[in-house]
Design a protein that fits this description.
three-stranded antiparallel sheet, 2 domains, D-Maltodextrin-Binding Protein, domain 2, globular, seven-stranded mixed sheet
Length: 444
């Protein structure tokens, strides 16, 4: 199961687990103060919900409970839940819209949501969802459901970044706090490497998306793209990040494997005791509890390695309603039911590695006093960082080209093939050419 979560989060910067739901009294509002949109008996017919890569246990039992809970609330309604592979769901939705066999509710990542909405394939929700429901969600995740001037999705579960460190290595080096700036990352990591004789810091790169998000965080509110033109070249904090990570790589403070930069490589090094500090989601510890219990026990979580007020990226999984749904009222009610505060809390408790998108859920003791296990402290720190989390990288037509440009230039910078200034200039030139090709006039 942990392997499945890691794979999904690697591809989409998120985890994929579900909650057990509780049935509500048919004469009351949905749990968490969310109005289902209709009293018991008013909804009838069928409502079909598509999930993404969630077949098998514990999901099968969860979905059986979900169907029972919502059908108890609306006895004239038949809920049908189907699971679609994550890499197929966008195309299946688009294909369904050309015919009559259209799902009523679909679990989509924001980039899929935006693409389908841009083609007129999703129902606009502003007038179908109350202000009370809209206000129940965290602002950043809720905003991820918007496209142009419309609301096309309600947020469900989230993942965000925390720092992970080897407590033994920190203690051995006399380090008592995690860094909050690039210079502090360098100083801390250098001290640990000198003490342990091993590389200590790893910057996850993935497909360039992680470094791209880091650059936006470092810019701390200043745009790195303005009206479709890159403006990152002269940002002193981004230059410092490229400069000091290059220095760490050259000095052996970062491992040579960092040029590959994957999430899985960071995990392997950390599990082997050959890494002391990195940033990732809560699922980072997934395989360690059973595969490297000694490392798991000394693993500690902290806030992300940047200014405590800087914005943090959040990965969101949403629910959207196809525009050709045959039962829009039921689809809206089901979306609100699955994403209400009580059910989101149960979702997080069952998953153990993802976060809810409702403010009320985060106020529960599960997040406020989660215990002292490594995973529990990870969830606590992740819930804290959600207060400043938002989707930092907008969904744009040329997003793959932007990420690729960052990945190549950053690795060349690490390896000393480019100076930091040359690397940033190369990114800017490629981004400008890409935006000119697509004609997107965007600022972020």
């Amino acid at each position: 199961m942990e392997r499945k979560f890691k794979q999904m989060l690697f591809i989409f910067l998120m985890g994929s687990l579900f909650i057990g739901l509780v049935a509500c009294n048919s004469e009351s509002e949905d749990a968490g103060g969310t109005d289902s949109g209709a009293d018991s008996g008013e909804l009838s017919g069928e409502v079909t919900m598509w999930t993404a890569s969630l077949a098998g246990e514990p999901f099968d039992t969860y979905f059986a409970d979900l169907e029972a809970a919502f059908e108890d609330l609306h006895p004239e309604l038949d809920v049908i839940i189907e699971d679609i592979p994550q890499n197929e769901i966008e195309q299946k939705v688009l294909t369904s819209l050309t015919g009559d066999d259209v799902p009523d509710l679909v679990n989509l990542a924001p980039r899929y949501m935006v693409n389908i909405a841009a083609q007129g394939g999703l129902l606009e929700l502003n007038d179908l969802v109350s202000d009370e429901v809209k206000g129940s969600y965290l602002e950043g995740p809720f905003e991820s459901g918007h496209f142009e001037d419309g609301l096309y999705a309600l947020p469900w579960y989230l993942t965000t970044t925390v720092s992970w460190y080897n407590g033994d290595h920190f203690e051995q080096a006399g380090i008592t706090e995690t860094p909050t700036s690039t210079q502090e990352i360098y100083d801390t990591s250098k001290t640990i490497t000198e003490e342990t004789g091993k590389p200590s810091f790893y910057q996850i790169i993935n497909e360039g998306d992680t470094v791209m998000s880091k650059m936006i965080t470092l810019a701390n509110g200043e745009p790195i793209v303005e009206n479709g033109k890159a403006v990152l070249q002269n940002n002193e904090d981004i230059i410092e990040f490229f400069t000091l990570t290059q220095k760490m790589y050259q000095e052996g403070i970062m491992p040579q494997e960092n040029a590959e930069g994957s999430f899985s490589t960071a995990q392997e090094l950390f599990m082997a005791g050959n890494l002391s500090l990195t940033e990732s989601g809560v699922t980072f510890l997934g395989p360690m509890e059973s595969g490297a219990p000694a490392i798991y026990e000394v693993s500690k979580a902290g806030q992300p390695l940047n200014d405590v007020n800087a914005p943090m990226d959040v990965a969101v999984m949403n629910f959207s309603i196809p525009s050709k749904t045959s039962n829009p009222d039921a689809a809206v009610a089901l979306a609100e039911f699955v994403t209400n505060a009580e059910n989101q809390l149960e979702f997080a408790e069952l998953a153990g590695t993802v976060l809810p998108s409702t403010t009320e859920s985060l106020e529960d003791d599960y997040f406020q006093n989660p215990g002292d296990s490594p995973k529990a402290t990870g969830m606590l720190e992740a819930s804290k960082s959600l207060e400043r989390a938002e989707v930092l990288v907008p969904v744009v037509e040329n997003s793959a080209e932007l990420r690729e440009a960052v990945k190549i230039a950053y690795v060349e910078n690490l390896q000393g093939k480019l100076t930091p200034e040359e690397a940033l200039e190369k990114i800017a030139e490629q981004w400008d050419a890409s935006f000119e090709k697509t004609g997107e006039d965007i600022t972020f």
